[in-house]
Each structure stands twice: as structure tokens, then as C-alpha cells.
TrEMBL record, chain A:
Signal peptide boundaries: none
Annotated protein name in UniProt: NADH-quinone oxidoreductase subunit G
Upper taxonomic lineage: Bacteria, Pseudomonadati, Balneolota, Balneolia, Balneolales
Entry keyword annotation includes 4Fe-4S: yes
Gene Ontology cellular component annotations, sorted alphabetically: membrane
Cofactor(s) listed in the protein's UniProt record: [4Fe-4S] cluster; [2Fe-2S] cluster
Keywords per UniProt: 4Fe-4S, Iron, Iron-sulfur, Metal-binding, NAD, Translocase
GO terms (BP aspect): ATP synthesis coupled electron transport
Stated family: Belongs to the complex I 75 kDa subunit family.
From TrEMBL, chain B:
Cross-referenced InterPro entries: ComplexI_51kDa_subunit, NADH-UbQ_OxRdtase_51kDa_CS, NADH-UbQ_OxRdtase_suF, Nuo51_FMN-bd, Nuo51_FMN-bd_sf, Nuop51_4Fe4S-bd, Nuop51_4Fe4S-bd_sf, SLBB_dom
Organism of provenance: Fodinibius roseus
Protein name according to UniProt: NADH-quinone oxidoreductase subunit F
EC code(s) of this entry: 7.1.1.-
Similarity-based family: Belongs to the complex I 51 kDa subunit family.
């Protein structure tokens, strides 16, 4: 097998490899800016320079030639090589900054150049704390500056498009954003304008950067040149908790991170998953962060008289719900699950009403034909359509939902804005007692007689099955009134959580939603009406499902965490559907 | 060194009126070399043409001085992909203005050379990329191409041989970097003139990913001479290891600036004092930039016995470049001159690679500071440091081209630079 020698260690490799990627895969480090594993290699930042050469092989014997001291002879390349564009070949010798002073010097020199015209406004820059330029300057850069002349001035606060703001002075011209728009989103909306040290990325005159994936350029920008218009100046990265989760705005299930501070989700960024979304996600999914904080249903509410909903206690909510259930036969109930909620929620919800004697909950997929693209935006507006199929909810269409409502006395809707998305009208529900278990205020909750606030994807651990049949799960990222970050082992903790107290600036009770996970509410309700129904945690639900549902056999939260989600044999599932 | 140059008759830009017209060119044996090849395809197989040109060792006239025939031989075997010849007429380094004379006075010689090259490399399409500021010469050249099409030298089924070669003329928008060979390819493809990383080399992956060879205009104009007279004859002209006629573009403080055709290896002093009519106002020679402003400047005392060929200039401490000689007299302010050169490279850096983008600007700003009398001695060392930080660290050679003049001008005229710097405020014991 071909071999390379990196920092005096021997490694074997197979196939085509660029030195930088190979070194990174080894877990070693070489600083770089313009290189991105999912895009073309321009080798323009010149940061990843290494010293490289080749052991000289005797053509006839195939053996390495030795010098008088018995050492292998090396033919060094005449110039420093950018490792990102250096293709490994058999017998190649590479010295990174760890073993070569020349490489270390070359990297330092490039950083000095990168910094001379950089504004060094880190204290007010959003990128600070997660800035490759800052980090690598700290690690590999020169001390102080020899630059005593005027910096180049370029446009600042340029609104490139509805979601992205440019500070051209911070730009280091790595062209990652330009290449993203060319190669990944393929809108070609960006280019570099002007020349030399005056150049910066820009749209064509009068064009706006309204690429549906535009915010990915903010993620990959190695400096603070491109910032999210919405998130600018809102929070420092080190103040936030970063919790892995799943994009619930469409069927793709992009892997994401929820960034929270003081129990508010402040931004959403993609999490690398080569099987689903690579490094990317649509802008729509990021804009969803508001729905976790605002317009939430907090505390149960009840309609006392017409058009007058008012908050009520959990006790009263349970009592009212129980009375309604006791006053009706199971066949007078129309029970609707939803592709907008997780598998666990739907399963527990459906099981509860099965135990009561009702048939399987119905659901209707939320599809807008033609809405998607062939990248990460899907026609399916919901994250868990396949999950509903997986647990055998009764799939129906809008008319099926309507006729179920017509023949029912009580309508129970799990987290689905059926009125808002036009499946039902408020009038359809007017003469029926309607109970909504919902995360957010909607036309449906408004038309309901009893609204039970439940946790959203940012507040519970639960799994979702995407359009390709991959099951992936969320973690609780923000507390509710009834959870405690330090007691909940699923929750990530930031520095502030660890050291903050109730008197800390960052602890604000108002941001905690007064809601319960569906299963927990149903525990209370079951206890009240004497139903044998008890799940302590969504894990218990998932364990039960993986025992009972074939495609979920052998799957656990741990496996999903390790493997970034698990592909289910979903075709098989579709066959059993038919 | 060439001594009998006075009897030399120009071959590339001979003194023949209206040679740019195809009838006149044909009257003077124009397109004879090309016809000879087409008429004797066995004697002049594609390989034989390449070998003849390789044996003649036409050193690339665009500055790098690489053997043109050898370059042709790097083209892969023909496959289903189209093959291109891209002709570089984007000369825009200060001091370089020789290709312009070919476009104006003998465009058909170049067209013929390009056709022979295209034949030798089985090329289907020739692109001619001309400096945008040369719009008048673009028009002259386009007319010549039109004539060549009319006469059947270009287009489909050339002279009834079944060979098809198309030629397209295009011109730049004013960027020096588009004269860098891969920058030119990008520009030809309609993109920003960002030089490409090599490998892959253009012969493997050039225009639109297809095999492409890039030659300078003057280089190709030498090709018909080689075919007509043979490699041995070509080797007999000029200096050892650097043959053939060269267009010397002489500018600066001389009485008769202009483009002069003489053999390679001309004595520098003869070129300045005889050919270009001596220094203006009978001043003393101070320095010479031998081959365009990127080549290292030579002091007058370094020029003794030096001739214009790569070996002699290398020994003297500079390079042949494009033979665009900038003659500087005793009144030249080297600080001003160097500042102006760095201004050029700062303005022309494409901005792709960090060391060049940032370095060229920094060089200019520090030199401006020194020029304005605000520099300090340490700035000179900073400038020299910067040149080391830039050289060999970028995709193309523009950073080198910007760094060399700074390093060599400061090293060779350090006194002048130190004199312009602020005096140290610290007492020296």
C-alpha cells in the first residue's frame, strides 16, 4: 500500500487524498481558511502551507535510495506547498508546523498578511469566539504587528440580501461564500468584485442575495464578514448552550444545533451529517427559532363562553378533559395524530386513546406539491410523516379528516394546525368539543374549547422519521417550568448554567414555558380516569416501540446518537401500509 | 554575445510596406512554411514539426523562456475532447510593448505560426487574447484574420486538406493578471482572471477542461522561420542557448525608444547607445531594467559586457523576461521608481492569494512613506522581509514579480533609500 511520512510518522493511504484532508482525518491540525471539504479547492488563502518532498526511489529496485549516513534521500519541493491542494503520492514526506520551522514561519507570515487589513474589531464582532481567524491567529500567528500604515477601507453593513449582512473590511477573500452559491446552492448570486486588496464578495448590481440557503455562507465564513442580519449583536457564542436537534420545518430532517441562552432559542445552525444535510440547511429552518420562544401556548386554557378563552390550572384542565372523556363513548371521539409531532408523542397519544377503546388516530400528511427543491427543501412541510406511518396511524386525506369531524362529538387534535393549513374550518369545529394539545397559538387552538400546552422539539427528547426513512432525535435544549437543566441529564449545560444562580441576569422565569410533554400530561389524565398508562420518559416510550415495531428493532437513542440517526427499512413499511 | 548585428536583416518585422496585407505577405513568401507542411504531410508529420521546433529551441518570448516545441510535446494524445491553442497577446507589464508591432506590421506571420502550431498539436481552435488597450491593433489583427479566412488558410477544409482550424480573437478588459497564462484561460472562459493552481497543467486540463497550449505571440511568429530555414539555421542566430531574433522594446531615457528586431544576445551597450540612439541629453546611464519591470534592475556598473540573453543576464543578476528594456539615466530617483513599480503590482494583483493581495499593498504603502521622507531604516528591512514572505508562496508568479524589483532595487541602491529615510533620533556613540 502507498505510504506517506507526516511529521516523521509513517502512514498508509489508499486512493486519492489531498494532504490537508488526510492530516485532518488523522486528528492532527494544520491551519486553513479557504478549504472546505464539500467544495472545490481554490488554495487561495495560502494558510495551510507545509514543507513537502519525496523520498527518492531507485527506479529499478523500487527501494528508497540512501545517503552516506544510511538515511533516505529526500527531494524537497522547491516551494512551500499548500497542503489542501497537495495530492498524496507514494513516498511523500510532509512536515507540518509541528516539525518544520519553515512551515511554521510560512503560516505565521500568511497570518501577518491576513491581519494587516483586517479591522481587528473582535470585541464587537459576532464571529468572535467561533472565529477561525481569531483562533488560528492565537495558535499560529505572529506576536504584535509591524503594520504602521493605513488599512484599506471597504463597505460595511452592506445588506447583501434579506438575511445576510456583509462587512467587507473583515473579509479575507477565501471565496467560500462565492463557491457555496456556485457549487452548493447553485444560484450563482455572489462573486468577488474589484481587485487585489480592494476586493470583496458582492451580488451583481441590483441583485439581492435571496438564495434560500443564504445563511450557510454565514456559517462557513471564516471571519465576521458575513453575519446573520437577524442574529447580529444578539448574543456572544460563549454565552449560549449548543444542543443537537432536528429541523422540524420540513421533511428532510436536517441535523441542527439549537443555540440557547436563558431558555430562549437564539439561533439555529446546521450540524454535519453526511447522510442527510452535509454541512447545510435551508434558511427557513433557521428562521423557525422564533416559534420556540414566541407565540407559545403557556398554561392550559379553556373556553368558558363563546370567544372567550382564559387560562386555567392544570388540575382543572385534567378534570375538564376527564369529564369530557367520561361523558362520551370512544366512537364519539375524532382523534388526530400529526406528522408535526415526534414518533413518541404520536405513539403515546394514540396508545392512550386505544386503551380508552378508540380506533387508531388519523393523520393527514402536510404536503405542498412543488414547494420543495432537489436539495434540502421538501414538499413535505412536516418532520415526521413517515413516523406516523411507522406506528400505523391511519393515514387519510383532508376529506377523511373532515368526515371524521362531522361524525364526532369530541375532536382531539395533537399539535397540528388543521384550521391554519386549511384542512378544517373553525366552523367545522364550532359544534364539537375540541381539545388541542399544542405547542403554539394557532387558528386551531383559537377554535378549541380546551388547549393543553405541550413541549416542542426544543424541550424534549424525541425522535422523527424523515422523508428518506431515517430516524433521528432531538434533545431538550431549553427548560420548561417543570424541568431543571441540572437535574435533566439529557440537557447540555453551558458555563452560565453551571455558575448562574436564580439571581443571575441570565435566569429569567418568564422564558420558561408552562407546558408538559404529551406523555406526562396523559399520565395525569390516565391517573384521573383510572387508565393504566404511565411513561416516565420518552425513552420508555421508545423502548416499548422498539420492542413492538419491527423496523425499530435494535434501535435506541444511544444508537441514534452514535450513528447520527439510523436508516429504517422504510420501503418495507410502505408495503405493510398498502 | 552577438557582434555582427549591424548587418542583421529583420525577419519578424521586416521593412516591407503594407506587409500586414495578405497579398503583400504572400508575395514575400508568406504562408510558404504552412503550405510546405500541408503539401508534404509525410515529411512534415505532426511529430516532425514538433521535433523541428523543439530542436530549434525557440525560448518562449512571454518571459519564462521555456522551449516552445517542448511545451507542445506535453499535449496528450488526441482523444474525443476538443484541443485548443491559446495565444497570449495580453502584454501589459510596463516596459513591454513588442507584440503590438507584430499585430501592426506582420500579423500574418503570427497567424501562420499559430496555424503550424495548431497543426503540430492537432488543435481545433485557436484563441488570440489581445490586451484590451490595444483596440486599434485588435482591429488590424481582426482584418488579417478575415483575410486568412478568405484565402482559405483558416476555417474548414484548409487548402483542401480536410484540416479544420478556427481562430477567434478576443481582448481583455485591462487587467495585467489576464496575461498570466491560466488567468488568461479563466478570462477566455468568461470568468474573473484568477490564475489556476497547477497541477493540473493546461496541457492536461486547460480551456473548459480540455488540452490547451498557451504560447506568446512573438514565440509563434518565430515558428514559420524555423520551418522555412530549419532548426540548425535558427540555432545559428543569437547567443548560445538563446537563439533567434528578438524584439527588443526599448523605453526610458533614450533618444530613440521603440521596438527593434535583432538577434538574441545583443550587447546591452550597443542596444542602448547605437540602436536606441544613446541616452537622452547625453546623461550617464544609471541602471537598466532588462525585461519588463518585474525583472531585477541592474546598476550601470553591473552591465559591463552583459548581453541580452538568459545566461548572460542571469550571471549579471537579472533575467531576460520579455526583453522590454527600461533605460534609466543618472537623474532617476530610484525610490520614486520603485514606488511606481509597486503601485503597478498593487493595482494589478488579482487578490486571490493572501501574500500577494496584502503584500503588494503593504509594499506600496511603505514605499510611499519612504518616498515622502517619512520612512525609517527599519522599513527597508521590513520591505525585504515582506519580499521573502511573498515569494514562492502564491498560485501564480505575480507575487514574485512584485517582490523581485523591491528586493533588488533596495539591495542595489540601498544608499539612496537610506538617504530618504528619517534620521535616527537616537544618538550614536
Amino acid at each position: 500500500m502507498p505510504e506517506v511520512f507526516i511529521d516523521n510518522e509513517r502512514y498508509e493511504f489508499e486512493g486519492d487524498y489531498m494532504a490537508l484532508q488526510f492530516i485532518l482525518d488523522l486528528g492532527k491540525e494544520v491551519p486553513f481558511f479557504c478549504y472546505h471539504p464539500s467544495m472545490s479547492i481554490p488554495a487561495n488563502c495560502r494558510q495551510c502551507m507545509v514543507k513537502a518532498g519525496q523520498y527518492i526511489k531507485d527506479e529499478e529496485t523500487g527501494e528508497y535510495e540512501l545517503d552516506e549516513n544510511g538515511e533516505r534521500k529526500i527531494r524537497w519541493f522547491p516551494k512551500m506547498q499548500t497542503s489542501c491542494a497537495l495530492k498524496l503520492s507514494d513516498g511523500m514526506v510532509i512536515q507540518t508546523q509541528e516539525t518544520s520551522e519553515e512551515a511554521e514561519r510560512a503560516q505565521k507570515d500568511t497570518l501577518e498578511f491576513l491581519l494587516i487589513n483586517h479591522p481587528l474589531d473582535c470585541p464587537i464582532c459576532d464571529q468572535a469566539g467561533e472565529c477561525p481567524l481569531q483562533i488560528q491567529t492565537y495558535k499560529y500567528g505572529p506576536e504584535g504587528s509591524r503594520f504602521e500604515v493605513k488599512k484599506v477601507h471597504k463597505p460595511k453593513r452592506v445588506q447583501l440580501g434579506p438575511r445576510v449582512t456583509l462587512d467587507a473590511e473583515r473579509c479575507i477573500n477565501c471565496t467560500r461564500c462565492v463557491r457555496f452559491a456556485e457549487e452548493i446552492s447553485e444560484t450563482n448570486q455572489l462573486t468577488i468584485v474589484s481587485r487585489g486588496d480592494k476586493n470583496y464578495p458582492m451580488t451583481a448590481p441590483s441583485e439581492t442575495f435571496d438564495d434560500p440557503y443564504s445563511l450557510n455562507t454565514v456559517d462557513i465564513c471564516p471571519v465576521g464578514a458575513l453575519t446573520s442580519t437577524d442574529f447580529r449583536f444578539k448574543a456572544r457564542v460563549w454565552e449560549m448552550n449548543q444542543t443537537p436537534s432536528i429541523d422540524i420545518t420540513n421533511g428532510k430532517g436536517c441535523n441542527i444545533d439549537l443555540w440557547t441562552r436563558d431558555n430562549e432559542v437564539l439561533r439555529i445552525t446546521p450540524r454535519h451529517n453526511p447522510e442527510v444535510n452535509d454541512y447545510w440547511m435551508p434558511d427557513e429552518g433557521r428562521e423557525a427559532f422564533e416559534q420556540f420562544n414566541k407565540n407559545r401556548v403557556s398554561r392550559p386554557s379553556i373556553t368558558l363562553d363563546e370567544n372567550n378563552q382564559s387560562n386555567t390550572s392544570w388540575n382543572n384542565a385534567v378534570e375538564t378533559f376527564a369529564e369530557i372523556l367520561e361523558a362520551h363513548d370512544p366512537d364519539q371521539l375524532a382523534v388526530f395524530g400529526t406528522p408535526h409531532a415526534s414518533v413518541e408523542e404520536n405513539y403515546a397519544f394514540n396508545k392512550f386513546f386505544n386503551l380508552l377503546g378508540a380506533s387508531n388516530a388519523r393523520f393527514t400528511p402536510h404536503i405542498i406539491p412543488g414547494y420543495g427543491d432537489d436539495f434540502l427543501i421538501t414538499d413535505d412541510q412536516a418532520p415526521n410523516t413517515n413516523g406516523c406511518r411507522l406506528i400505523n396511524l391511519e393515514e387519510t386525506d383532508d376529506t377523511g379528516i373532515q368526515s371524521a369531524v362531522t361524525s364526532a362529538k369530541v375532536v382531539i387534535i395533537l399539535s397540528d394546525d388543521l384550521v391554519g393549513r386549511g384542512v378544517l374550518s373553525a366552523d367545522d369545529l364550532a359544534d364539537r368539543y375540541t381539545i388541542s394539545l399544542a405547542t403554539n397559538q394557532s387558528d386551531t387552538t383559537e377554535a378549541s374549547d380546551l388547549v393543553i400546552p405541550i413541549t416542542c422539539v426544543a424541550e424534549h427528547a424525541a425522535s422523527y422519521v424523515n422523508i428518506d426513512g431515517r430516524i433521528q432525535r432531538s434533545f431538550p435544549a431549553k427548560e420548561t417550568k417543570y424541568t431543571n437543566r441540572r437535574l435533566n441529564l439529557e440537557m447540555s449545560e453551558g458555563r452560565l448554567d453551571r455558575y448562574g444562580t436564580n439571581f443571575d441576569n441570565w435566569v429569567n422565569e418568564e422564558h420558561k414555558i408552562d407546558c408538559l410533554p404529551v406523555w406526562e400530561f396523559l399520565n395525569h389524565l390516565g391517573e384521573r380516569i383510572g387508565l393504566e398508562f404511565q411513561y416516565d420518559h420518552s425513552r420508555a416510550i421508545f423502548d416499548e416501540m422498539s420492542d413492538r415495531i419491527d423496523p425499530l428493532k435494535g434501535i435506541s437513542y444511544e444508537r441514534m446518537d452514535e450513528e447520527l440517526g439510523v436508516q429504517l427499512p422504510i420501503e418495507q413499511q410502505e408495503v405493510t401500509q398498502a | 554575445m552577438v557582434e555582427d548585428w549591424k548587418s542583421y536583416e529583420p525577419l519578424i518585422i521586416p521593412d516591407i510596406p503594407n506587409l500586414h496585407r495578405i497579398e503583400v505577405y504572400e508575395e514575400h513568401d508568406g504562408y510558404r512554411a504552412f503550405r510546405r507542411i500541408l503539401d508534404n504531410p509525410e515529411e512534415w508529420s505532426r511529430t516532425n514539426v514538433t521535433n523541428e521546433v523543439k530542436a530549434a529551441n525557440i525560448r518562449g518570448r512571454g518571459g519564462a523562456g521555456f522551449n516552445a516545441g517542448l511545451k507542445w510535446s506535453f499535449m496528450p494524445q488526441p482523444d474525443e475532447r476538443p484541443r485548443y491553442l491559446a495565444c497570449n497577446g495580453d502584454e501589459s507589464e510596463p516596459g513591454t510593448f513588442k507584440d503590438r508591432n507584430i499585430f501592426e506590421f506582420n500579423p500574418h506571420l503570427f497567424i501562420e505560426g499559430a496555424l503550424i502550431a495548431a497543426y503540430a498539436m492537432s488543435v481545433d481552435v485557436i484563441y488570440v487574447y489581445i490586451r484590451g488597450e490595444y483596440i486599434d491593433w485588435v482591429r488590424i489583427f481582426e482584418k488579417a484574420v478575415e483575410e486568412a479566412y478568405e484565402k482559405g488558410y483558416l476555417g474548414e477544409d484548409i487548402l483542401g486538406t480536410g484540416i479544420d482550424i478556427e481562430m477567434y480573437t478576443t481582448y481583455g478588459a485591462g487587467a495585467y493578471i489576464c496575461g498570466e497564462e491560466t488567468g488568461m484561460l479563466e478570462s477566455l472562459e468568461g470568468k474573473r482572471g484568477y490564475p489556476r493552481i497547477k497541477p493540473p497543467f493546461p496541457a492536461q486540463k486547460g480551456l473548459w477542461g480540455n488540452p490547451t497550449t498557451i504560447n506568446n505571440i512573438e514565440t509563434l511568429a518565430n515558428v514559420p522561420l524555423v520551418i522555412n530555414n530549419g532548426a540548425d539555421w535558427y540555432q545559428s542566430i543569437g547567443a548560445e542557448d538563446h537563439n533567434g531574433p528578438v524584439l527588443y522594446g526599448i523605453s526610458g531615457h533614450v533618444n530613440k525608444p521603440g521596438v527593434y528586431e535583432y538577434p538574441a544576445g545583443m550587447p546591452v551597450e550597443d542596444l542602448i547607445y547605437d540602436v536606441a540612439g544613446g541616452i537622452r541629453g547625453n546623461k550617464e546611464l544609471k541602471a537598466l531594467i532588462p525585461g519588463g519591470t518585474s525583472t531585477p534592475v541592474l546598476r550601470a556598473d553591473q552591465l559591463e559586457g552583459v548581453s541580452m540573453d538568459s545566461n548572460s543576464l542571469r550571471d549579471a543578476g537579472s533575467m531576460m523576461g520579455t526583453a522590454g528594456m527600461v533605460v534609466l539615466d543618472e537623474d532617476t530617483d530610484m525610490v520614486d521608481l520603485l514606488w511606481r513599480i509597486t503601485h503597478f503590482f498593487h493595482h494589478e494583483s488579482c487578490g486571490q492569494c493572501t501574500p500577494c493581495r496584502e503584500g503588494t499593498g503593504w509594499l506600496e504603502k511603505v514605499l510611499l512613506k519612504i518616498k515622502n521622507g517619512e520612512g525609517e531604516i527599519k522599513d527597508l528591512d521590513l520591505l525585504l522581509d515582506m519580499t521573502t514572505q511573498m515569494e514562492g508562496r502564491t498560485i501564480c508568479a505575480l507575487a514574485d514579480a512584485a517582490a523581485w524589483p523591491v528586493r533588488h532595487t533596495i539591495n542595489r541602491f540601498r544608499d539612496e533609500f537610506e538617504e530618504r529615510c528619517k534620521k535616527s533620533v537616537h544618538a550614536v556613540a
